[in-house]
Prior knowledge:
A hairpin with a 5-residue loop joins strand 42 (841-852) and strand 43 (858-861). The protein is built from 14 helices and 44 strands. Mean pLDDT is 95; it is low at 853-868. 21% of the residues lie in helices and 29% in strands. The protein is of the alpha+beta class. The strands form ten sheets. Strands 19, 20, 23, 24, 25, 26, 29, 30 and 31 form a nine-stranded mixed sheet that branches. Strands 32, 37, 38, 39, 42, 43 and 44 form a seven-stranded antiparallel sheet that branches. Strands 8, 10, 14, 16, 17 and 21 form a six-stranded antiparallel sheet that branches.
Amino acid sequence: MAPAITEIWLENRRGGRMVGIDEAAPRLSFIPCEPATSYELEFTPYGGASVSTTVSGTRLLAWPFPALEARGGGMLRLRPDAAGEWSEPMRIERGIGNDWQVDFVSPSERADAGEPRPGYLLRASFDLGALAAELISRARIYSTAHGVYELELNGRPVSDDRLAPGWTSYRHRLRYQTHDITDRLRSGVNVVGAWLADGWYRGHIGFDGGLWDIYGTDVALLLQLEVTTIDGATSVVPLTWRWAPSPIAAVGLYEGETFDARRHDPLWSTAEYDANAWPFATVLGRERFTARIEAPTALPVREIETIPPRSIEHRDNGRIRLDFGQNISGVLRIRPRADAGRVIRLHHAEVIEDGELGTRPLRAATSVDTYIAAGHDGEVYTPRFTVHGFQYAEIEGWQGALTANDVEAVVIHTDMQRTGGFSSSHDGLNQLHSNVVWSMRDNFVDLPTDCPQRDERVGWTGDIQIFAPTALRLYAAHGTLTGWLRDLAVEQWDDGHVPQFVPWVECGFPNFPTAAWGDAAVIVPWEMYRNDGDVKILAEQYDSMKAWVDLVDRLTGHTGLWNDGFQLGDWLDPKAPPHDPGESHTDRHLVATAYHVKTARILASTADLLGRNDDATHYAHVAARATRAFQDEYVSPSGRVVSDTSTAIALALVFDLFHDAQQAAAAGERLAELVERSGFRISTGFVGTPIICDALVLAGKPDHAYRLLLQDQLPSWLYPVSMGATTIWERWDSMLPDGSINPGDMTSFNHYALGGVADFLHRAVAGLEPVAPGWTAIRFAPIPGGSLTSASASYDSVLGTASSSWQHDHDTFTLTVEVPVGSTGEVVLPGSGEAIAVGPGTHTYTTTLRAGGPDGAHLEPQRHPIEA
């Protein structure tokens, strides 16, 4: 029998962990298979009797049971109506809050910086004595680290987490993990062990040389082990920690890992191993550290999938080259058969240049893993505490023959639930969409970063501000973004300034208020609200949002015109020289003022939603003043926009900055003219690219949007596809047509920002667009064109699946839409302008359309649509 409830989650964290949460009264959401008048919820607390209640809604329901105390929890199940099929029971459990009764322990309070440092082992044994396993009802490990760590218990991994606890603003926030070890304990002596290394905490981070020991000079573990017996008594198990050097001789996130398997004893975390010679770890009092220790808001980084090599090539220099056919974030897993002491090196790169691995773009991130074989049968090596961005790898020093089963690429990133999909009849667009998806995956390694491969990998605010609508469509990324926004707020200066990337690293980049980057403080939470309809993120981030808009208002002298100071503008304009990517043809201060309008408007709407009426009035005034300033400074009476670039006009159109419809129409014609003059090649950078196709549609030029979208000559979205790209490039010409890498020192083949066009593919090409927060109202208005004969998009919204799929066969256009339970829809067939109201369910419409215009882009309706 099919389940009556397909998905259950807490707060806005779909797919998130339910054990070890911070909330005492978490809000509950679920998706039913069929609508019901009510739903019965049953919660059975630990050691208590079941409690039931009935609710009528499915979204963000207030916790209907007694608040959870620290460590409190139980099993939840629900069903439609009073006699429906029960869902599978789900464990919900709160973490320990601030009830830490142990201190950090460290094997290394200080170490020389300048080169990768070793990893460490920590272990503690504890004797449960005569306490039989059946007398233990629950056992938990609560743990975190300064550095990155992995746990073992009695010789086996405790979890599949990678790079825990992840990267946060460690001076303010440190996440802890909760692990259920109830079934792993045994009577008598048990051993808990930890692998520990520098990670982001004190490792080499940043660009232009980077920094060491950013957050502290120590690596340390904080671990509290608790046992609850069947009588309900909970006790903290006392642990005395010893440490030893690990087989990891050196490791850095950028540099790679060196592992000497000869020094590895797999029994080290078991009771059979004698660790009496290990020195005791140093105890570091928690009072030395200021960070709040809190539960994660998202799933952890994990091994998501493995990819076998597409090709294996034996090189003349003795190396073996592997092509995995996909650019990823991850590591290699090898299964060597080698003599003891054999040194095997693993080299990584995204591309091939002049027949060799293209490593110049990696800059200081050498990305080489080294394995020294133990000489045993069945050796397997997967680097623990590093991650690389690569499609190609070369193995140096392999002994004997290498088969496809001896090596695989391990994809590593935050474990997120996939929610959005797109497909069409155009192979190039399909590959482009796949490239966007992969670039998001590769750059969500615990936080939204710019790239996964070079000496950078930081949370650039501008990139996620641009990409947020796409990110939220492709994956349930709310948990990751919620945590990152908390870091943004604590990194924000007292005057409201938002650093260009979060967490901030003082590595030489100019740290001044910057439009489109700092605006992430306002735009990202707003896009999250639009996506799932939850105002909580706006309430949590309101002070941060307000501080940013107030700062910009002050910087304009309360005129609305932001016309001085440092700006990145339309970053990576394709006409900018390789060594000066900020040299855009669009006036930087036009961009700044346009964004000031946008974020002031958003803040006014946010204040209204939160019932802050005075603020709503004030920021509406700030937005109106900035709008007038933009019009006075940058728009002529005829509608001509200063800079006269595609980005400038697109901003004015999409941000609704013109004085009247006549100005907007004239500007739209000028935009079409500029796009034609460019040969339908891209002429926009970071700011203009995500909105250029929307601007053309607003201008009544969908044909131009399609010709721009389907262009495959440099610069264009499909040029990288034509060059074999499997991810989105940082530059339009990251690789030149002759196969050489862009000569600039800032070149990546895995940046998601320019992939923001995927949002247009979903909304406009396939015609699937929410028009109310949380997908409670959906507009199905596809814009067919180009050479496409079909397109479809789907989204697993918080109310259920929504989808739009169309086919154009000769003169017949067929559209099928799916509206989830709890939502309403309107269907607008191409060229009709008539909105047809639809309710939940699947609906199919047909109409006759005559193709015409360039590339068959324009479709004219011939008769009224008929619902099949």
